[in-house]
Amino acid sequence: MVPFAGWEMPVQYSGVIEEHKAVRSACGLFDVSHMGEIEVSGDSAIDFVQFIMTNDIERIADGQCQYTPLCRADGGVVDDTIVYRFNIDRYLFVVNASNKDKVFGWMLEVQAKEKFPDVTIEDLSASYAQIAIQGPKSIDAMRPLLDIDPDDIRHFHFHIGLLAGEIEAIVSRTGYTGEDGFEVYLDPKDAPALWKVLTDSGMPHGIRPAGLGARDTLRLEMGYPLYGHELADDITPIEAGLGKYVRFSKDFLGKEVLERQSKEGTSKALVGLRMCDAGIPRQGYEVQSGGKTIGQVASGTMSPSLEVGVATAFVKPEFKAAGTSVEVVIRGRAAKAEVARLPFYRK
Amino acid sequence: MDFPKDLKYTKEHEWVRVEGKTVVVGITDYAQDSLGDVVYVELPQEGASVTKHEPFGVVESVKAVSDLYSPVSGSVTEVNDAIIDSPEAINEDPYGDAWMIKVEIAGASELDDLLTADEYQKFIEEEK
């Protein structure tokens, strides 16, 4: 257990590699109750939501969710989040634990400054626990517990219903691993019971508890961003390669900067790196080309699926093409690497 | 957790087996367990000098990089290259297959402040 943003977090149960492989081949159970939940509701809620997010909530219907960065006017990312659309007047933002207070304060500030008096913004983080079940067998573990056929919850849709006949929950077909799976939001008092019934129901399908260590290697193999690595207050979604979650057909905070960057280019670009030499790239390591610095590693690990060192890195845009040879400086030694297409892992 | 009585230990979680003027060095069961899955190891070349309390190599788990601190000063006479290709041996057999380096020491005084198995065990219990 390690402390993180005021929570005691399980980094690993049986071992990162074993947990990682269980999620890729069967299923893993994650306690991600540290995630924050902020509800935005009221008559002009949709206008406020559209103003603070770069993606376009009008592209989804009630009962669906959408990934989006949240940006300041300067284009810097406050957080990245999944927004659950209950109806046109009610939304739930699932935010990173370490950013929760910042996002909540920022939303209140934007509301006051931009005059959205009819909107109510509530920090409901203490009212929700979150358990994620991830992996190709997740659906088999969910089927006997859910009050509908889990196949009826399509990708990035959610269902509000009962699990095991008595546990009220929001169940979405979402995740952070690149595998099929579900994320379940429920009253914290019911979380231990749900953990147990999921463990029992997943037992014949090879379910294992999985910790933050595996969560990180799974997301990195997919090239999914993690705030504090690929995203930060001084990084824009365009720089982080998240242009497809930025919709210029509507107005939003940061639009001017992001539109300019998307037309004129940026001074850095996020790429994937795969090591050619031995060694494991880590956050902060320098990236070079012919001995000259061209960037820095954002996240790095040994990929349990590919058994090779992989990383994301911000580099000068002229080096972003897949196949470009670069070096990562590991303890003073320039180790050969190659720009790789994301995701690193494909089924 | 296993701490063989015939070995000496350091507070940096290395073990030492004395074989005449040469010592064999590795990391303890406690160290491998705390690290988790070891996926990479970097060791010095044969002939290199190592210095007591100074890093002589690196082990990496999936999550973290850790220095290996030399329990003695001396010259490296042999390196266990096999664990470079199979770093998982460090988790599986830390006192056997996963020995790391052999070091020729100047004299027995190099061993003076090393811990016995009991002292080391007491030390890690206090550290927890």
Mean pLDDT of chain A: 97
- Terminal CA distance of chain A: 31 Å
The order of strands across the largest sheet of chain A is: 10-11-12-9-3-13
**Strand numbers in spatial order across the main sheet of chain B:** 1-2-3-9-8-5
Q: Extract low-pLDDT stretches of chain A.
A: none
Number of domains of chain B: 1
Q: Please tell me how large the radius of gyration of chain A is.
A: 20 Å
| Strand composition percent of chain A | 25-35%
Biggest beta sheet summary of chain A: 6 strands, mixed
Largest sheet of chain B: 6 strands, antiparallel
| Number of separate domains of chain A | 3
* CATH H-level homologous superfamily name of chain B: RNA polymerase II/Efflux pump adaptor protein, barrel-sandwich hybrid domain
What fraction strand of chain B?
Answer: 25-35%
How many individual helices of chain B? 4
CATH topology of the largest domain in chain A: Gyrase A, domain 2
Task: Give the mean pLDDT of chain B.
Answer: 95
CATH class category label of the largest domain in chain A? Alpha Beta
Task: Provide a brief overview of the structure.
By secondary structure, chain A is of the alpha+beta class. Chain A has helices spanning 16-25, 45-52, 100-114, 138-142, 191-202, 212-222, 255-264; strands at 2-4, 7-9, 27-31, 36-42, 64-71, 77-87, 90-95, 119-123, 129-134, 158-163, 167-172, 181-186, 207-209, 269-275, 286-289, 292-303, 308-315, 325-330, 333-340.
Task: Write up what this structure looks like.
The complex is a heterodimer of chains A (347) and B (128). The two termini of chain A are 31 Å apart. Chain A is 20% helix and 35% strand. Chain A has 347 residues and is of the alpha+beta class. The model of chain A has no long low-confidence stretch (mean pLDDT 97). Chain A has 3 domains: 2-33 and 128-220, Probable tRNA modification gtpase trme, domain 1 (Gyrase A, domain 2, 2-Layer Sandwich), CATH 3.30.1360.120; 36-126, Alpha-Beta Plaits (2-Layer Sandwich), CATH 3.30.70.1400; 267-347, Aminomethyltransferase beta-barrel domains (Elongation Factor Tu (Ef-tu), domain 3, Beta Barrel), CATH 2.40.30. Chain B has helices spanning 29-35, 82-85, 89-92, 117-127; strands at residues 8-9, 14-19, 22-27, 38-42, 49-50, 55-61, 65-69, 74-79, 101-105. Chain B is of the alpha+beta class and 128 residues long. Chain A binds chain B through residues 11-12, 15-18, 213, 216-217, 278-280, 282, 301-302, 304, 309, 331, and chain B through 36-37, 39-40, 42, 58, 60-63, 65, 84.
